[in-house]
Design brief:
alpha+beta, four-stranded mixed β-sheet, two-stranded antiparallel sheet, globular, binds zinc ion
């Protein structure tokens, strides 16, 4: 019996070539460095020596999550957050919470789950960090407020009204400085999913072009962040026609 509630926060096509982790690399957010409103978290790094086994997969992702959590999300420090693996043919990443603990009013526990197949394909390291930051935005969102609010979120997501939710999550990751990584990840995903899934992907999440426009807008006018949080853009024209976008 699966006692964890699946939110459907899947990221099809998330995969990493084992060799990507065979060398030391870092994936610091870069798009916020010149801006006063977007922080520049410490880089997250992966040490060499990981093998494509279940334990190594978990260790790699756990290391990245810990680093991103410390640099970008210190407020998540008290949160019970664990990394798990799962098997799937189509989904490679998902964020879940323990429904049993939710129902029993116990301390909340969250899971970032990764598909073991993520080592069988090649994804940009910077993109991996960015999509993990996106997942941590989900965790932060789910961990805020009382259980009634969380229950509302669960219902919202389960009904499929998640497009704005996912794009707002992207927006927060961009605000944290992961815009460039997110662009790299999306470009990679588009090339590594069935063509039938591409339209849905582009609808559900910001495309690289849209992310670039969001970054340019925020650089010129940081107040756009508050506007976009309330009015989540669902297309490129909705971004560029936002009040205060062009100065
Ligand atoms: Zn998501």
């Amino acid at each position: 019996m699966n006692l964890a509630l699946n939110f459907g926060l899947h990221h099809k096509g998330f995969a990493i070539n084992a060799f990507a982790f065979s060398l030391f690399f870092f994936c610091a957010p870069t798009d916020g460095r010149a801006q006063t409103t977007i922080p520049t978290p410490a880089p997250c790094t992966v040490q060499e020596g990981f093998a494509p086994s279940q334990d190594a997969t978990s260790a790699t992702i756990t290391s990245l999550v810990t680093q991103i959590r410390q640099s970008s999300y210190p407020q998540l420090a008290p949160i019970d957050l664990r990394v798990k693996t799962f098997h799937s043919n189509a989904d490679y990443f998902q964020t879940r919470l323990s429904l049993s603990r939710f129902v029993l009013l116990r301390r909340m526990r969250y899971f970032v789950e990764v598909n073991l197949d993520l080592f069988s394909r090649q994804a940009p390291a910077q993109g991996v960090c960015a999509i993990l930051a996106h997942e941590l935005v989900h965790v932060a969102s789910l961990s805020q407020g009382n259980r009634l609010r969380r229950f509302g979120l669960v219902r919202l997501i389960s009904k499929g009204f998640s497009r704005k939710f996912e794009r707002r999550t992207d927006l927060e990751a961009i605000h944290l400085g992961y815009g460039d990584g997110l662009k790299a990840y999306r470009a990679w995903v588009y090339a590594n999913i069935p063509s039938a899934s591409l339209v849905e992907k582009r609808k559900r999440y910001f495309s690289p072009e849209e992310i670039s426009s969001l970054q340019e807008g925020l650089k010129r006018n940081p107040e756009l962040l508050a506007y976009w949080r309330k009015h989540v853009p669902l297309s490129l024209p909705e971004i560029t026609s936002s009040p205060g976008y062009s100065h």
